[in-house]
Task: structure prediction
Amino acid sequence: MDNLLKYKIALTMIPGVGGITAKKLISYCGGIDAVFLEKESSLLKIPGIGNHLARAILSFKDFNRVEKEIRFIEKNNIEVFFYTEKSYPARLKHCEDGPVLLFYKGKADLNKQKVLAVVGTRSITEYGKEKCNEIIEGITKHDPLIVSGLAYGVDAKAHKAALDNNLQTVGVLGHGLDRIYPPLNKPLARKMLEQKGGLLSDFTSETQPDRENFPKRNRIIAGLVDAIIVIEAAKTGGALITANIANSYNRDVFAVPGRTKDTYSQGCNHLIKIHKANLIESAADIEYIMQWESEPSKAKNKQQQLFIELEPDEKIITDLMAENGEASFDYLVSKSGFSFSKTSSVLLNLEFKGAVRTLPGKIFRLNGIL
Result:
């Protein structure tokens, strides 16, 4: 067992020490154990460390609880990933607010070449179930790792669809690995482990599934993956939080559109409307945007793009993007002289034609040859 593990766990148990603060402390002090040996006067010189937090670090004495956690880890064959180590998920390592410590039980490779998250409402409809099955079945040939939150609704459906298609799937939890929430998903979690998937958390055992834990869980989901698919979502909720975090991490975000009056399509429609998600109807859209097509398909798409016919307004927009290959929405509105709504409409038509793709931050990029 890692000699420094007790300090790694202890640091995460100090109230007020999150991922960013923990990394800062380790960097300034020169090591994880050095944080607990530092003088208060030295801690106070670290930017962002005030009297209250410095005293909380120096007064931490609950190493009995730490030892108990280590026994739990050993007994249950749990892997521990620290952010400075090679075993830590590479994609998450680049997220500034990512956790310093992760607890993992499973066999799935978190650094797999292709990793997708599937998220959405807990109140999934028949339409949502159908689209979730269809999309995951469609991307099976690429053998991606499917990540979700093991909650009711879209999460559970995504895990089940992955298992049905013999894909590895990992559940990111908002509590410790000593329990499964909701309890009805225990059989699903067991099957995920049996099929070489996994369960991941940054919470120690005995941590309850409290409401405030789930936004933190959502950050891990967003950071672990190449892209996020929102199947169904209301106007507010965890799925939209995860999508916004993914955009801040420069991850691709996809959303399945629905009827405007359907409650659990309104969130997806809104993400698409404000250019925070790519509209997708099928797995083929994901393949195209992520450039996962097989070589024959790429050649076919490129040949098709040679003959894209553009309307005059579309040509104005693509000409503005031609110099750098991409441009911001605001730049296109300013330079084209078009109204906000007209620019949106033209860009949407260009997306449908496969001439343009949307990137996070309202950036639009030209595709192929026009």
In short: The two ends are 58 Å apart (CA to CA). Residues 256 and 280 are 5 Å apart (CA to CA). Residues 63-75 form the longest helix (13 residues).
